Amino acid sequence: MKIILIEPDEYYHAQFANHLADIAELAVASNLSDARELIAEMTPDVIVLELLLQDEPAYKLLEEMSQDRHSAPRIIFSKIYNPEDIRAAMNLGASGYFVKGRDTIHDIKKLLLTYQK
């Protein structure tokens, strides 16, 4: 399984790499500009992303991908725990929403196992 992690925090880069090594090939982008390049290059099976990015809000990518029926499932793993933001992300096609500090990477891994081919 090919996963793109869009996350600005290097701590989470290492955590995802450690937790998902046995099920996925992980590529990491720290911003949306790099993420768009990775998506075009590798056609991921799943995208995991933080909503709070430095270059532009991740909602922009969710909106772009919601127009594409063939895009990869998107899973949010964010610091944002606001019901309106969660609803907005889900309305833009997110397949799951996990909150940092409440949910764990192990929780995400369980969901990812349902996407394995």
Concise synopsis of the structure shown:
The protein is α/β, with parallel strands linked by helices and 117 residues long.
How is the CATH topology named? Rossmann fold
Number of helices: 5
Helix content: 40-55%
CATH superfamily: Response regulator
Largest sheet: 5 strands, parallel
Number of strands: 5
How would you describe the overall organization of this protein?
This protein has about 120 residues and is α/β, with parallel strands linked by helices. It has one domain (about 1-115): 3-Layer(aba) Sandwich (Rossmann fold), CATH 3.40.50.2300. It is built from five helices and five strands. The chain has helices spanning about 10-20, 30-40, 60-65, 85-90, 105-115, and strands at about 1-5, 25-30, 45-50, 75-80, 95-100. The protein has a five-stranded parallel beta sheet, sandwiched between helices. Strand 3 (about 45-50), helix 3 and strand 4 (about 75-80) form a beta-alpha-beta unit. It is globular.
